Amino acid sequence: MEFFLISLLNSLSYGLLLFMLSSGLTLIFSMMGVLNFAHASFYMMGAYFAYTISGMAGYWAAFILAPLLVGIAGIVVERYGLRAVHKYGHVAELLYTFGLSYLILEGVQLIWGRSAVPYGIPEILQGPLFTLYTTTFPKYQAFMMLIAVLTLLALYLVLTRTRIGLIIQASLTHPEMVESLGHNVPRVFMLVFGGGCALAGLAGVIGGNSLVTEPGMAETLGTIIFVVVVAGGMGSLMGALLASLLIGIIQTFSIAIDVSALDLLSAAGVSISPHAFGHSVLAVSLSDVAPMLPYALLVLILIFRPRGLLGKREN
Amino acid sequence: MTTHSLIASRAGGLTNSRLTLMWLGFAAVLLFAPHVFTSSLAHSHLTQMGTGIVLALSYNILLGQSGMLSFGHAAFSGLGAFMSVHAMNLAGGGTFWLPLPLIPVVGALTGLAFAALIGYVITRISGVAFAMITLGIGQMTYASALMFPGFFGGEGGVSTNRVYGEPILGWTFGPQIQVYYLVAFWLFICVMATFYLTRTPFGRLLNGVRDNEERIPFIGFNPHKLRYMAIMTSGLFAGIGGSLMAINFEIATDEVLSLHESGAVLLFTFIGGTTSFFGPMLGAVIGVLLTKLLPDYTAGWQMYLGIVFILVVVYAPGGISSLLKPGMDMVRRTILHKRYALFFRLLLSVTALVVSAILLIELLYHRATGASDPLSLWGFSLDHQGFIAWVIAIALLLAGLLTIKASGRALVRQLAEDTAQLEGEAQ
After folding, report:
1. Which of A45, A278, A310, B244 could form an S-S bond across to A236 if both were Cys, CB 3.0 to 4.6 Å?
2. What percent of chain B stands above pLDDT 70?
3. B31-55 average pLDDT score
4. Which CATH number fits domain B3-317: 1.20.1080, 1.25.10, 1.10.10, 1.10.3470?
5. What is the mean pLDDT of chain B?
6. Which residue of chain B comes nearest to A107, CA vs CA?
7. Which residue spans of chain B are classified as CATH 1.10.3470?
8. Which candidate from B1, B122, B147 shows the least CB-CB separation from A292?
9. How far away is chain A from the Cα of B37, in angstroms, using its nearest Cα?
10. What rounded mean pLDDT belongs to chain A?
11. Residue B229 — pLDDT band, cuts 50, 70, 90?
12. B140 vs A91: CB contact, 8 Å cut-off?
């Protein structure tokens, strides 16, 4: 029970972090048809900016400034880069962001070096929040969850209850109509792209010190958030939330469970000799399979439900 | 990308005798290249170019011919490499008879089998979603490499020895040059096969899937099945590429399955150009030059690579090979109309941009190492701690950025006027 509750809390906080990234990614995708390969790179930028700013002006300044800076970087990328490739189609846009992820990685290594930087948790948020049976739950993890839920609530309210949200939603489905009503749709796109990047940056600010701030962090999370977006259904926010939490649960639980198919069989009274065919496959424990599971989930979803969990269209 | 129809028209325009001449020329280049570049390092690079070309061509069956962007190509080539290494070890141990020159068949079958296994599901969709799924497949294969150390050898990989069995016609395949000729032999076969594939009805149908998927069912074909066949063909050639890689390096590690490997194939195929048959081959050659030679000169080679890639995506989506013809044309017309001053002006802008970019990158990387001695570049000594070097570099960059568009336009406009005038006189 203790294991179950703690793992559940861990997977919730990880899943929410994933959703902060994938929500921006899926919004950008559904608006512009661009799958931003560099999205996780903006997350990394957020973490590194926060590290530098918090060294100069404290954590809370970084908490505000770093996402803003990342958002501005996103706006610049959209305005002066993506818009230029737009005429060549979505594949060219995807390739552009792929190249960009290379450049951001090199830039980060150039400025901050190739090893991890000591981006720490602020003192006020250190220490345990409560103890569950015998395991303590850290304050910072609760803070992460709180921030994630608050931003997502804000995102939801902005999208459904404000004027700009209305325009964004209308631009999703009827860009020509919105344009002829006198709104600048390319600028809306630019703002959404910047906003999505800022969200990724904020995820970097709160995730960078909880996980680790190093040049490999973009790649670690980058491929997972693509899985989230595709598995949840391309362009579906609720699908992204569902898939984020699902993958959070799968990854957290599977790492903690050290059981193999062989153990299950022997518990059931079946013994298989080490020389039998397929023994090495059966001997692999669930925790070893953990890094593979999100991708296996993706393949399964695509076999049985090609449009994703909550996707509306096939492509 | 609408310029894709270039492949069909150009290939169609070649007569059979010209084609024969082309193949003979290609064979001669392959035959004599190691005698022109004679150092053992050059032989190693030539061998890698050969395997790179096979991989790039196999990749272009997907990207260039069928319009399928894949981020998981290393899964096919990497599994081909692993199976080949195991086949070499087994054949060397005497479990079965299989001479080294036939090992790529193992790779080909592996690539084909894996593509047949996963291809049907993942080719149900196309476009950006397909790209993401191939990314997932690639990562899944990569993740499984550490899960099954029995087959993949864990962190250290599986090593092998390519010198086994009886020598064939006196060849042991120990020396690099013999490996080069083995790779060249398979390269020639693969280039020929992939080239003639573009001219078959199947090849043309793949172009159809790329350009207008909706119309394919109307002429009686199933785009899903065509994509499935495309990925199987691509997997087959990728497996050969992986095999050749394994023979050359005598090892397969989990690195050959990684996203970096898939990314490199994508990068170089695209830089070379996906719209012509020749493009991926050029890309693979550029790739080996950039990744093997450049690191000897600069720490910032990956930065250069990224910048070149982005420039190609933004300014030359048909790849570098698509620039060759217009570029030659421009030089030819400049000479014809004697517009050297304008041409020189454009050259100056380009040089300013390139030089300033190199200066800035080298200064940045030099500063990042924390060295206190000045950077030496092209025989100059540049002090990265002072202002002057930076000011010069940034001034050059600005000068290049501000003038390049005007210089380019002036030359193009003048040449167009000259040509129009020439045509007017001729009439």
Report:
1. A310
2. 95
3. 87
4. 1.10.3470
5. 84
6. B303
7. 3-317
8. B147
9. 32
10. 84
11. very high
12. no
Whether residue B129 and residue A288 make contact (CB cut-off 8 A), yes or no, is no
Which among B250, B229, B285, B180 is positioned nearest to B65, based on CA atoms? B229
Structure tokens at A11: 């997977």
Tell me the per-residue pLDDT of B144-172, one tens digit each, with 9 for 90 and over.
888 887 788 878 888 888 888 777 777 77
Cβ–Cβ gap B313/A306 under 8 Å: no
B234/B221 Cα distance (integer angstroms): 20
Q: Is the pLDDT of residue B244 over 90?
A: yes
Whole-Å CA distances, B98 to A133, B101, B162, B168, B179: 62, 8, 12, 12, 16
DSSP state letters, B167-198:
-BTTB-S-SHHHHHHHHHHHHHHHHHHHHHHH
State the count of interchain CB pairs (< 8 A) between A and B. 127
Of residues A90, A113, A292, nearest to B144 (C-beta) = A292
At residue B384, the pLDDT reads: 67
In the three-class reduction of DSSP (H, G, I as helix; E, B as strand; rest coil), residue B3 is classed as: helix
Is the Cβ of B110 closer than 8 Å to some Cβ of chain A?
no
B426/A59: higher pLDDT: A59
Which DSSP letter does residue A209 get?
Answer: T
What's the number of domains chain A is made of?
Answer: 1
Q: How far is A302 from chain B (nearest CA, A)?
A: 7
Tell me the C-alpha distance between B305 and B148, whole Å.
34
Closest CB from B128, B133, B302 relative to A106: B302
* B278 touching A (Cβ < 8 Å): no
Q: What is the ipTM of this complex?
A: 0.82
pLDDT of residue B27: 87
**What is the extent of the structural domain holding A67?**
2-217
Give the burial class of B272: count Cβ atoms within 10 A of its Cβ; 0-12 exposed, 13-18 middle, 19 or more buried: buried
